[in-house]
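Researcher: I'm preparing a figure for a lab meeting and need a structural model of a single chain. I don't have an experimental structure, so a prediction will have to do for now. The sequence is pasted below. Please return the structure as C-alpha cells so I can convert it later.
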Amino acid sequence: MENLILIVHVIVSLAVIGLVLIQHGKGADAGAAFGGGNSGSVFGVQGSSNFLTRATSISVTLFFCTSITLAFLASNKHETLSPLESVVENSKSLDKNTQDVTEKSSVSQDIPN
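Model: Understood. Here is the structure written out cell by cell.
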C-alpha cells in the first residue's frame, strides 16, 4: 500500500513540475501584444490557460493528499512502541549481550596458561 502511494506521489510530483514549466507567465502575454511571437496555441488563446491551471490545481491537490497520507503511514509505523518500552527492550538486549560476554570470558579462565 505504501509503495503504491509512493509511486503515485512521484508521478504526480513530476506532473506538477511539467505543468508548471509548460505554463506561460503573466509577462508572456505582454510580449505577444507587441508582435513577439505567435499567441495562438493548440487549445486556443484562453483554452490552454484554463486547462493547464485546472490540471495543475488537480495535480497539486493530489500531491498534498499523497504527502499527508505518506506522513500518516510513516508516523503509524513507529507508534507501536512507546519510548519507555523501547528503552526497556534495549536495556534487556544489552543485558543479554553482557551476559554472553562474561560467560565466554569465564570459559577461557578455566584453561591453564
